[in-house]
Amino acid sequence: MSARFHMFTALAVSALVALTIILGYISFSRMWEYDLIIPGPGVTEVKWLSDYFPPLKGTLGDSRVFFLDSGRPGATVSITAGIHPDEHATMAGLVMVERARPRTGRLIVIPQCNNSAYTHSFPQEATPQFIHLRDAEGGVRKIRGGARGTNSIHFWPDPEVFIHYFTGQKLSGEEVRNINRAFPGRPEGTFTERVAYAITRMVLQEKVDLNIDLHEAWPEYPFINAMGVHEKNADLGTIAALDLNMQGVDIRLEMSPPKFRGLTYRELGDHTPAWTVLLETPNPTSGRIRGITDEKLIIEGRDAFYVRAAQLGRTFVPFDERGWPLSVRVARHLASLQALMAAYTELNPDKPISVDDIPDYEEACRTPVGELLNPASQAAKGGGL
Amino acid sequence: MDFAHDESMYRTALVVLAAMCASCVAIGLIGWKFKQRIPLAFNLFVSSAVGAAAGGFGLPWRHLVEGPMFYIYINLVIFTALIMLQVMKESGDLEAIAWDILTAFRARPVLLFMLLLLMLYFPGMVTGVGAAGVLSTGVIVAVILQAVGVPKLETGAILAITTTLGAAAPPVNLPALIIASGINMPFDGFNTILTVLTVPPGIFAIFYLGRKHFRALSPGEIAALLPRPERRFLLQPYLPILSIVVIFGLIGAFPRHMPDLVSPLVFMIGALVGLFTGKRVNIFLAASRCMSGRLFGVVAVFFVVGAVVQIMTLTGVKGLLVITTFEISGLSPVLLYVALGLGIPLLGGLITHLGAAAVLGVPFALAILTSNTIVVVSCISIFCIMSQIVPPSALGGFSSQDVVKLPAYGPIFKRCLVPFFAATIYALVVLYFAKQFAAWFVPY
User: pLDDT digit of tens for each residue in chain B (444 aa)?
Assistant: First the structure.
């Protein structure tokens, strides 16, 4: 090979790399923009996580905190959604912001807790960058697909082994970017630990009585269609789970394992006065057995490979041709939120919490999620954030 | 294109898989026809794109670029470990260490082999990547083994199999970490059982392959083979390795007080220390030299495997492989063990041990959770780790071939087969008797 040939090859490769970088920047920088949120009639105030931990201001770790105050005395309940953005049914948090109207007490919703995790997609998972939901007026609500952990541009490289600072628990290195292994967080910690710290500060400063954390799990994972509770509020879980099962929403109750550290319902339960709960629904998009990975899988939740896996006894939830549509998964979360608030009120009659305008389970199952959100056209009228 | 997620998904995934395989073979044949050695990385990358296009996914450039990002860090670990070793080589430290070992243990094969085994295990133990061991301490060990009479072929096989097992030894076992993370369990309580799983097969491998060839060297033969090292004090050539051992030790012992400097930085510190322990070395030229040759190919394969896995995930091929494995293993318990012991390493040969851990390791671990979880995850990590010697990726294997300078990897792979099956069968036995092993070797 001549030197001229090598020179040509080097130039061609350099040009290709430059083109890839430019295209990559264009593609991924679109995910750095915050999603449109159109607050509903119940929203009385909007803050940011940086209001609780100022160093987050101006970073993509900052995220919106919505207050829905009834003006009547009662409990303060916080909902942490989007801890893992690729668990798409946590959009139930968004539905609460855009629809809910508290009758008593106060609701605080962080619909996209780990905003940094919304700004990228995880290599090798092939998940869509955006999800397009048709709203009631035929418009489109575009939501970022996101990844499980914080964006690598905010923390890199991961250690080989992630050690939870407070307990010394060891986990896979990539878990250093998983905010649900970083609680209670540290002001001087990693990017992810600082976001967790801001959320912990919010729970403490706002004197939250009950925190409900929304999640999803892959169908082959045992902790699924489940409600995990801190041992100090086991009664709350028992009452809510009974209520849900009576409504026909099959849900299991589990205690938070004391040795599994860094999770919201373990650490917020241990380090704040709040009662804590974690909810899981099944999401085939995050499982290893799934087939084609696209928006359709996220929204319709149907997958022939999972149907077969269920027949072979490899899943922990029933999985038939109907799959687990996003609307059903969101409906489960909405029903669980209502049941938990009702149970809290039952156990603490002096601190009631109740919310109106949330569709019941059957209605939410029937309604496409985009139609549960406010129409995109309202943003043009100045209604969006 | 709007894809159905019903039974037609089987057809789509099969079309993609068939197109990928056909493209791989066709590119190989084109290279053979024109007498050009087409790099494996290039072949896999193009074949992934061809497979996606054949399945109706167009040219998914985002996925082709995004997938490889997963391996940036591992490649950085390999690069920096190699830079440190190249500095040690050029400064004369490696020859000095080899001289010390040969002089001290020239007539004591058992002690010599055990020491060499420890040297081969160490880099994999701290980085989780077997190739790091081959390309670092493996260079010294290869010199020593060949000096005591072990042929190149057996030397290459020893390097490949023992560094592979070393990558599974505690404290850092990347497949176990990935699987544990995938099933939401902490990586605690693994050290003893991983030691039990990795040390006996390693001892077997090095003695099986090397012992019969051993011949004691006379001091004169050693002097003829290696120059007597010049040094100011005994530990001088060991300082780079000692420095990284100390740093890794401090990070492990005091995680709350010692910041995790991460492996690449630790290796670069070792390289900087190496600049002051022997002959004058230009670190930039040393870095440049270690990038040339086999290493570049290893790194390229690592990157491209990321693209292959992402395309397989996008198109449903990954799911098809998992469900097929479940179908086969569901036929009988024997087939389950065969799928574990052979299916995982074979898949790992294509998508590396990390890919195998993510794709098959997690579902298998969940499928047999009825036994002790720590033992189950540890055993599955062994099946994943063994894929480091399985072609076409064979990251540890190809690196060993490069170190012993043999023209082909095939003969080395054949020599590895007995220790490979010994380690695999041993892990299967441990898995079968998981509860009994857990009672002895798992703290809870």
Answer: 789 999 999 999 999 999 999 999 999 899 999 988 888 889 999 999 999 999 999 999 999 999 999 888 878 887 888 888 889 989 999 889 989 999 999 889 999 999 999 999 988 887 788 887 887 789 889 989 999 999 999 999 999 999 999 999 988 898 998 888 778 787 888 999 999 999 999 999 999 999 999 999 888 888 888 888 888 888 999 999 899 889 988 887 887 788 888 888 998 999 999 999 989 999 999 988 877 766 777 788 878 888 998 999 999 999 998 899 889 888 888 888 888 899 999 989 887 888 888 888 988 888 787 778 999 999 999 999 999 999 878 888 988 998 898 988 999 999 999 999 999 999 999 999 999 999 999 876
Whether the CB of A1 is below 8 Å from some CB of chain B: the reply is no
Enter the ipTM: 0.93
Nearest-angstrom CA–CA distance, A313 and B195:
33
The secondary structure element, H or E, covering residue A278 is strand A275-282
Tokens of A216: 């999803």
The minimal CB distance from B181 to the residues A160, A174, A308 is found for A174
Which among B1, B3, B5 is the top mutation candidate for probing chain A, defined by the most A β-carbons within 10 Å of its own β-carbon?
B5
Sign of CA dihedral B99, B100, B105, B110: negative
**If you average pLDDT over each of A26-35, A165-174, B326-335, which comes out highest?**
A26-35
B76 interaction partners in chain A (CB closer than 8 Å) = 157
Residues of A in Cβ contact (< 8 Å) with B11: none
Please give the residue of chain B at the shortest CA–CA distance from A156.
B73
Cβ contacts of A257 on chain B, cutoff 8 Å: none
Q: Cis omega (within 30 of 0) on the bond before B171?
A: yes
3-state secondary structure of B11: helix
CA dihedral B128, B200, B111, B278 (to 10 degrees): -10
Interface of A with B in 10-39 (CB under 8 A): 20, 23-24, 27
Nearest Cα of chain A lies from the Cα of B306 at a distance, in angstroms, of 6
- Which residues of A fall within a CB distance of 8 Å from B173? none
Contact B180 A290 (CB under 8 A): no
Number of CB pairs, chain A paired with chain B, less than 8 A apart: 163
Single pTM value for the model: 0.89
**Domains, chain A, with CATH or none:** 32-383 (3.40.630)
A262: left (phi over 0), alpha (psi -120 to 50) or beta: left
Mutate to test the interface with A, among B185, B263, B323 (most CBs of A within 10 A): B323
User: Which position has the token pair 């007498």?
Assistant: B35
**HEC per residue, B303-338:** HHHHHHHHHHHHHCHHHHHHHHHHHHHHHCHHHHHH
H/E segment holding residue B430: helix B410-432
Contact B181 A175 (CB under 8 A): yes
Amino acid residing at A213: D
Q: B303-337 burial string, b = 16+ CB within 10 Å, else e?
A: bbbbbbbbbbbbbbbbbbbbbbbbeebbeeeeebb
Is the pLDDT at A222 greater than 80? The verdict is yes
* pLDDT above 90 (res A194): yes
The alpha carbon of residue B73 is apart from the nearest alpha carbon of chain A, in Å, by 7
A82 token code pair = 């989007």
A304 and B5 in contact by Cβ < 8 A?
A: yes
- Inter-CA distances, A76 with A103, A108, A212, A218, Å: 12, 7, 11, 31
- The 3-class SS string of B168-224 reads CCCCCCHHHHHHHHHCCCCCCCCHHHHHHHHHHHHHHHHHHHHHHHCCCCCHHHHHH
Q: Where are the alpha helices (DSSP H) in chain A?
A: 3-29, 92-99, 115-118, 191-205, 234-246, 264-271, 295-300, 304-311, 326-347, 361-366, 369-372, 377-378
Q: What are phi and psi of A69, to 5 degrees?
A: -105, 125
